[in-house]
Design brief:
Length: 191
């Protein structure tokens, strides 16, 4: 094993550690990314495969890019990986989840080293329709021994200027009666 591979393996072990100093085990949250990925958030849900997220670009999505939207995932494999897949799913701000389910972007198998994979995010952005929200990338990496890593990367999406504005309420007359009802009452039909 070369020095570089040993350093990468040490980094992967540190990131996969379930505990880190200074916090009781029952209230631990996943550690923040050591790479300062703000405003994106990287969370390791499971880290058994020899896989480390190195970077994601862009770190915030712009709905103005529409169909041209893609995100580049950069990762490091410390050993051979059978497969790396990425699923993109959008969520409008204030909603718990979305019914949208995207097909996986397959990054393929990867040998030890640094790799890049372009992930489709255009469909997820289109589903948001210009509203503020986020696109969540779920990265699944599988090692040769069926070890798996699952990483969630959350990319914020700002509302576009062309987002649909809320439909205004109909004009109200006295006592909250809709204005169109007052018109009908004022001019009854001829007998």
């Amino acid at each position: 094993m070369t020095r570089t591979q040993a350093a990468i393996a040490a980094l992967a072990c540190a990131l996969s550690s379930p505990a880190w100093p200074g916090r009781p085990a029952e209230v631990q949250q996943p550690p923040p990314s050591p790479y300062g990925m703000d405003p994106a958030k990287v969370e390791y849900l499971r880290n058994d495969a020899p896989f480390v997220v190195f970077d994601v670009s862009p770190r915030q999505l712009d709905p103005a890019h529409g169909a041209a939207a893609a995100t580049v995932l950069n990762f490091i494999a410390t050993e051979d990986l059978q497969e790396v897949k990425v699923f993109a799913s959008p969520r409008i701000a204030g909603q718990a989840s979305s019914p949208f389910a995207d097909t996986a972007t397959r990054c393929g198998s990867a040998g030890p080293g640094y790799h890049s994979c372009e992930v489709r995010t255009a469909d997820a952005l289109a589903w948001l329709g210009g509203h503020e929200g986020q696109v969540e990338l779920r990265v699944e990496a599988e090692g040769l021994d069926d070890d798996r890593s699952v990483v969630r990367i959350t990319l914020p999406v700002a509302a576009s200027a062309s987002a649909a504005a809320p439909v205004p309420a109909p004009p109200q007359g006295p006592g909250g009666t809709p204005a169109h009802a007052l018109t009908l009452l004022a001019f009854p039909a001829a007998r």
